[in-house]
Prior knowledge:
Helices cover 45% and strands 14% of the residues.
Amino acid sequence: xxxxxxxxxxxxxxxxxxxxxxxxxxxxxxxxxxxxxxxxxxxxxxxxxxxxxxxxxxxxxxxxxxxxxxxxxxxxxxxxxxxxxxxxxxxxxxxxxxxxxxxxxxxxxxxxxxxxxxxxxxxxxxxxxxxxxxxxxxxxxxxxxxxxxxxxxxxxxxxxxxxxxxxxxxxxxxxxxxxxxxxxxxxxxxxxxxxxxxxxxxxxxxxxxxxxxxxxxxxxxxxxxxxxxxxxxxxxxxxxxxxxxxxxxxxxxxxxxxxxxxxxxxxxxxxxxxxxxxxxx
Length: 281
C-alpha cells in the first residue's frame, strides 16, 4: 500500500509494539494518529515521528472508559475526514499470577472492556470515515491465547483468572473480526485479526512476570503486513499467527456465538452503567 497521504490511527501506540508500528508508518509517509493514556509519552512519540520527517498527532484517551472512547472518536473526526487504516492495538495484559478482578469505569470486567469492548465501540464510531476512505483496512491485534466466551458469566464474576479474562477478551476480538468482515462485504473495507508474536519484549509481558522471547520488531512486521501488504488486498475476516494465516478457536466460526456477542456488545455500550452492571455482572 502506498502510504503517502494515508491517515492511520494506531491505538496504544506510545509504548511497545504499537510504538514501533506508529514510527514505521510515519517513516513510510503516513499521517499517524498516535493514541495513548500518557500525554508526555504520546507527545514524545508524535514528536519523534515528525523529527524524522513524518506527520503525527497525539490523541489522549483511557480506553477503560466508554465516555473517553466516545471522546476519542470525536477527536478523530475533528482531525480528519478519512481513516485509511485503523489498528486496534491497545490492551491490558493478564496481570500475572494472582491477578485480582478489576472493573472499568463503566463497571465491566477490565480486560473485556479495554481489549475488546473499547475497540468494538471505537470501530463502530469511526466506520463511516473508514468506509468513505475505501479501500481501507481494520487490524485487530488479538492473541494466540484464546478462551471461549461463557455467555452466562461474560464478566467473570465467578472463579476469576487474569489469564482467562485476557484470553476471553482476545477471542472476542476475533469473533468481532469475522462478524464485521461479513457486515462489510462489498464495502471495500477489510478487517483481519492476528497474534503478532509470542511474549514480545513489552511492558505488558514483563508485568506478567514472563521472560520475553520475541522482539517487538517481529510483532510490528506482522501487524504492518496486515495493515499494508498488497497481497492481502480484498482478504477479510481472517486470523493470522504472525504473518501466516491460521485458525482461531472454534467459537470464532460459530455464527450464533458471534451474534450473541454483537447483541451483548451493543447493549453494553448503550445501557447506563448501573443498569448494564445489574443485567450482565
